[in-house]
Amino acid sequence: MVAEAQVKAQNNPYVDDKVVHFGFSLGVNFMSYNVTDSRDTVYGEVYHARVSNLLPGFEVGFITDVRLSRHLNLRLCPQLNFSSRTLKFLTESGNPVQGTLGNGNTADILSIPISIPLYLKWSAEREGNYRPYLIGGGGISYNVTRDREKPLCSNGLDYFVEVGLGCDFYFSWFKLCPEIKYQIGFANQLMPVSERPELVYPDDLYTRAISRLTNQMVSIVFNFE
Questions:
Q1: Do the beta carbons of residue 137 and residue 118 sit within 8 Å?
Q2: Average of pLDDT values for 100-119?
Q3: What tens digit of pLDDT does each residue of 33-84 get?
């Protein structure tokens, strides 16, 4: 009798028993780069690059969730992200680079990656109308903004791992699931000078100053299921 009363007091008490369910997600993200300088002398100088500005981005996605057990779910969540980053270039002595990027030492990089992540979601026991969970997985992404006319151009394809945590909140007709995730990319996102014969001095010094760019991202997402 006590168990029946608890079930009646819950919103949408049998939603987690579905073998397959769908949903969508909306969120904001902060995308950055892990920058590895080349440390080579480029036209008589050694240059350094770093991410100097992060602008909040936007993401939207679709959710397919498969119940594996009482506490474990498999989730496929393709999504589209919009974000922007600013790379700042300095000489070895800390002076701004005198180049061709507008004010000479910063490059704004717009990214619109299409991501296909696959997650495992481990959920705790439901308490009333909330249920915390952990999530982890990985996937691939492709950045559709590849402008070869700019001094810095992306390779496009990336693969990544992602971890996060969140909580299911149960309402009468749906679940609201806010979560925070951290993503680490592994593929070098910088298209090298050897693949860009159109680059000439001084535009090429920005690419020559960097040996490796890898993605990092923190996202705050609201899932509706």
A1: yes
A2: 80
A3: 998 888 777 666 777 788 877 788 999 999 999 999 999 999 999 999 998 8
CA distance 22 to 220: 19
CA nearest neighbour of 84 among 115, 45, 52, 114:
52
Pairwise CA distance, residues 161 & 170, whole Å: 28
Peptide bond into 117 cis (omega under 30): no
CB proximity list for 66: less than 8 A, separation 6 or greater: 19, 20, 73, 74, 75
Decide if pLDDT at 96 tops 70. Answer: no
What angle (nearest 5°) sits at the alpha carbon of residue 223, between those of residues 11 and 181?
Answer: 125
What sign results for the dihedral spanned by CA atoms 196, 201, 202, 208?
Answer: positive
Task: Look at residues 47, 76, 50 and name the one whose alpha carbon lies nearest to residue 61.
Answer: 76
Residue whose tokens read 């100097």: 52
